[in-house]
Amino acid sequence: MRKNRFLCVSIECLLLMLRRKLYLEHHLDNPFPTSTSEKRALISRFVVKAWQAVKPDTILKGFARAGVVPTGPHDRDGRFREAVILADAPLVQDG
After folding, report:
1. In-domain check, residue 42
2. DSSP structure string for 45-58
3. Based on the structure, what is the number of domains in the chain?
4. What is the separation, in whole angstroms, between the first and last Cα of the chain?
5. How confident is the model at residue 1 (pLDDT cuts 50, 70, 90)?
6. Which run of H or of E encompasses 21?
7. At what angle are helices 36-53 and 2-29 packed, to 10 degrees?
8. For the chain, what percent of residues have pLDDT higher than 70?
């Protein structure tokens, strides 16, 4: 539980900083929104841009620091693979 909280806090902190930076940069050249719906739409765009700015490697490192990295079989490219269970596989019974 505690490790997962670290992951959430680290990702949220990064997104908050990126969103704030985008918001401030936008208002250097643009006027403030005149209505709440305009402000919501603007902030939504900043959130999308902030998520796009986060590198996948950053998210992976966050999972690793939180101790929630999947372990198990990997393919030759290093991607995690789940076991494939075949429905028609023969059943084996011990003697």
Report:
1. yes
2. HHHHHHHHHS-HHH
3. 1
4. 43
5. very low
6. helix 2-29
7. 120
8. 69
